[in-house]
Amino acid sequence: MVYYKTNDEIGLIRKSSLLVSATLATVAKFLKPGITTLQADILAEQFIRDNGAVPSFKNYKGFPFTCCISVNDAVVHGFPNNTVLKEGDIVSVDVGVFMNGYHGDSAYTFALGTLTDDVKQLLRVTKESLYKGVDKAIAGNRIGDISFAVQEHTERKHGYGVVRELVGHGLGKQLHEDPQVPNYGKRGTGLKMKEGLVIAIEPMINMGKKEVYYEEDGWTVKTKDGKPAAHYEHTVCVQKNKPDILSSFSEIEANEKANEYLDASYY
User: Fold this and answer.
1) Rounded to 10 degrees, what is the CA torsion of 148, 151, 153, 156?
2) In whole angstroms, what is the distance from residue 182 CA to residue 180 CA?
3) Is the pTM of this model over 0.90?
4) What pLDDT score does 105 carry?
5) How many domains does the chain have?
6) Please, what is the Cα angle at 248 between 8 and 251, to 5 degrees?
7) Is 79 helix (H, G, I), strand (E, B) or coil?
């Protein structure tokens, strides 16, 4: 069942989404070699609760943390832990918040220290593909138009692996609603989008092959070939002539550039 949102509901989802963005921006200030992903998770949870919201992910289907933090060859759903981050790591942080009855959801991949050119390209192309997908989120287009745009830029143009097992999704009162939003597919297929549809678009792109596997924790998804993966996500509302991005990377990018331990030169 696809739920279209009213203007009031879109406003509430925007508030939740912007709190997610502010949470990611707070993490962007904190990240550096020598800290642990568990420390980042604790910081994010405190920030969310201090702002009158609750973490969407914590205890969702048994997930025990506030953030999914996935390092290097972990694609998504990584468990925060006590492993110390080091120079050259890439760190995907995915966060959701629940506030005023509605969820927001966003993700960003950070680079610690100086990256190799091939990893920089992976991050840049994945981030570009997010916006290419977002550009298709307009009334009258179909979900497959978003999917095709992401796949065309990442897989066909650059030879990367597009993960098939995990997809974007609708969201609102529930963290995951219909429709599913794959990062691969054919133009002109799938649900015809109407104004008021709110979706999370989230390319999950592997430097190598598309195949992944689940770790023993039942959550962490890793690349089978051990090559790194990148993940970016926006919450987006479909509108008539152009998409309305409800989350924001502006503060995240500003803090990323201001943090001497992060490499923002990839974009």
Assistant:
1) -110
2) 6
3) yes
4) 98
5) 1
6) 130
7) coil
